[in-house]
Design a protein that fits this description.
14-stranded parallel β-sheet; alpha/beta; 9 helices; Spore Coat Polysaccharide Biosynthesis Protein SpsA, Chain A; binds calcium ion; binds uridine-diphosphate-N-acetylglucosamine; UDP N-Acetylglucosamine Acyltransferase, domain 1
C-alpha cells in the first residue's frame, strides 16, 4: 500500500529521572547503540519527509547525538506528550499524509512494526491508529477502553477508576495519525487530568467524538513496545535485544556454542559458518568472515576477522586479522594492528599500530608496537619492540624471512633487513643488513671455581665477606 509518511516525531524531552544518571535516558546504550539510535534507525526506515526529535531535558546532549535527517525541536517545558507533538508540528509547515509518533525510550520497536502500523492506518483511512499491547501487568500504562464500535478512549493510570485499571490492553505511545485531524485535535487538548498535562492519548477520544475513524492495532510482539524507565528495564531489554540479534545470526548460519553468554552488537556482521564460543562479546562494526572461530572469552571491538582465522581468549580493538591467522590465548591487539594471512600473535602478545606480514609469527610473550614485520618472519619469545624513548614514538621495520632471537629488544628506530638473524638476548640498537647475524649482548665469561671460593658449604670457614 503506497502511503506517504510526512513526519515521524520522536518523543525525547522527558528527564528519565529513574535512571539516576548524569546521562540523559535516551542516550543510554544497549546492543552497542543508544536507545535513541535504535529508535531513529526504525524511524528512518519509514523514509519520512521530516524526522523530528522533541528534546527538552539535556537538550544539548540529545541534539548532539542526532544522526541522519533527524532534527531537534525544543519543548521548553514538559507539559505533556500532546504538547510535545504540538510543538513538533508547529516547527514545520503544513503537512499532508501520515504523522507517526514514537517514544524515544522504546528501542526494540522494529521498522517492520512501524510500517505495518502505517499500512493498517492507510488501509482504514483512519484519523488515529494507535499501537496497543496486551501485558501481564498494566500498572503505569494508559488503558485502552473499547466499546462495541471500537476504541473509545485511553485513560491514564493516574486517572483510571478501579474497573478501568483491570484492563490489560495498554497504549504504547506509538501512533499513526492523519496530519490535519491531528493538528486540529491537539488544539483542543485540555490539561483537565491528574497530572495537569496535555495528553496525546486524549486525541483518541477527540477523534472518536468527531466521528473520525480510530483504530487500535495490537502489537504482535508486546516485548517490542516495552519502554525503559530504569536500569533494571534497560538490562532486561538489552538481553531481549541480544536474543533477537543472536537468533538472527543463528538463522543465517552462525554457530553459537552458548547463546546465553554471547553479546553481539546490532551493527556486527557475521558470515555463515562462523563459530562464536562461550563468553564472547562482539562490539561496534566487527566483521567476522566465514569459518572463523572467535572465543571463548574474547572481546572484539571494530575488528575484522578473516576466513578461518581463530581468536582465543583475547581482547582486540580496531584490528585486522587476516585469513587463517591465529590470535591468543591471552593476547591484546590494539588499534592499528594488521595480521597478514596465516600470521600469528600467540600467547601473551600485545600488538599496537603494527603490521605482521603473511605467515609471520609472534608466538610468545612479546610487545610489538609501531612496527612493520614482513612475510615469513619469526619473532623470538619475549622480544620487545622498544618504540618509546620516553618522549617520542619511533618505528621498527623487520623484513621478510627474518629470525629475531628470543628475548631481543628492538630499539626503535631500527631496521632488520630481509633474511637477517639476531642472536638471543640481543638489544638491537642499529640497523641489521639483509642476511647478517646481529649479536648485541655482553659476551659470556665463566669464572672457574667461584662457587667453592665464595659460597662455602655450611661448617666450612667463610671468607671475611662471606656473609650475604
Ligand atoms: C505514556 C502514555 C501512556 C502509555 C505510555 C507508554 C500519555 C499521556 N501517556 O505515558 O498512555 O501507556 O506512554 O509508555 O501520553 N515526553 C515529552 N514531553 C513531555 C512529556 C513526555 O517529550 O512533555 C516524552 C518522554 O520523554 C517520553 C514519552 O514522551 O519519551 C512518554 O512520556 P512519559 O512521561 O514517559 O509518559 P508515560 O507516563 O509513560
Ligand atoms: Ca514512559
Amino acid at each position: 500500500m503506497p502511503s506517504r509518511v510526512a513526519a515521524v516525531i520522536v518523543l525525547a524531552a522527558g528527564e528519565g529521572s529513574r535512571m539516576k544518571s548524569a546521562t540523559p535516558k535516551v542516550l543510554h546504550s544497549l546492543g552497542g547503540q543508544t536507545m535513541l539510535a535504535h529508535v531513529l534507525a526504525s524511524a528512518e526506515a519509514l523514509d519520512p519527509e521530516h524526522l523530528l526529535v522533541v528534546v527538552g531535558h539535556a537538550r544539548e546532549q540529545v541534539t548532539a547525538a542526532l544522526t541522519g535527517r533527524a532534527r531537534a525541536v525544543v519543548q521548553e517545558s514538559q507539559d505533556g506528550t500532546g504538547h510535545a507533538v504540538r510543538v513538533a508540528l508547529e516547527s514545520v509547515g503544513p503537512l499532508e499524509g501520515t504523522v507517526v509518533v514514537v517514544p524515544g525510550d522504546a528501542p526494540l520497536l522494529t521498522a517492520r512494526t512501524l510500517q505495518n502500523l502505517v499500512d493498517a492506518h492507510t488501509a482504514a483511512t483512519a484519523a488515529t491508529t494507535l499501537l496497543t499491547a496486551r501485558v501481564e501487568d498494566p500498572t503505569g500504562y494508559g488503558r485502552v477502553v473499547r466499546d462495541r464500535h471500537g476504541v473509545e478512549k485511553v485513560v491514564e493510570d493516574k486517572d483510571a477508576d478501579a474497573a478501568t485499571l483491570l484492563i490489560d490492553e495498554v497504549a504504547t505511545s506509538v501512533y499513526a495519525f492523519a496530519a490535519e485531524p491531528l493538528r486540529a485535535a491537539l488544539g483542543g487538548l485540555k490539561p483537565d487530568n491528574a497530572q495537569g498535562e496535555l495528553y496525546l492519548t486524549d486525541v483518541v477520544a477527540l477523534h472518536r467524538e468527531a466521528g473520525l475513524v480510530v483504530v487500535a492495532e495490537v502489537a504482535a510482539d508486546a516485548d517490542e513496545t516495552r519502554g525503559i524507565n530504569d536500569r533494571v528495564q534497560l538490562a532486561e531489554l538489552a538481553r531481549l535485544l541480544r536474543d533477537r540479534i543472536v537468533t538472527r545470526h543463528q538463522r543465517a548460519g552462525v554457530a553459537f556454542l552458548d547463546p546465553q553468554t554471547a553479546w553481539v552488537d546490532a551493527g556486527v556482521v557475521l558470515e555463515p559458518d562462523v563459530t562464536i564460543a562461550q563468553n564472547t562479546q562482539l562490539h561496534g562494526l566487527t566483521l567476522v568472515r566465514r569459518g572463523a572461530v572467535v572465543g571463548p572469552d574474547s572481546t572484539l571491538t571494530d575488528c575484522e576477522v578473516g576466513e578461518d582465522a581463530t581468536v582465543l581468549r583475547s581482547v582486540c580493538t580496531s584490528a585486522l586479522i587476516g585469513a587463517r591467522a591465529a590470535v591468543g590465548p591471552f593476547t591484546f591487539l590494539r588499534p592499528g594492528t594488521v595480521l597478514g594471512v596465516g600470521a600469528k600473535a600467540g600467547a601473551y602478545v600485545e600488538v599496537k599500530n603494527a603490521q605482521v606480514g603473511d605467515g609471520s609469527k609472534v608466538p610468545h610473550l612479546s610487545y610489538v608496537g609501531d612496527a612493520t614485520i614482513g612475510a615469513r618472519s619469526n619473532i623470538g619469545a619475549g622480544t620487545i619492540v622498544v618504540n618509546y624513548d620516553g618522549r617520542d614514538k619511533h618505528r621498527t621495520s623487520v623484513g621478510d624471512d627474518v629470525r629475531v632471537g628470543s628475548n631481543n629488544s628492538l630499539v626503535a628506530p631500527v631496521t632488520v633487513g630481509d633474511g637477517a638473524y639476531t642472536a638471543a638476548g640481543s638489544a638491537i640498537t642499529s640497523d641489521v643488513p639483509a642476511g647478517a647475524l646481529a649479536v648485541a649482548r655482553q659476551k659470556q665469561r665463566n669464572i672457574e671455581g667461584w662457587v667453592a671460593r665464595k659460597r662455602p658449604a655450611p661448617g666450612e670457614k667463610q671468607g671475611s665477606h662471606g656473609q650475604p
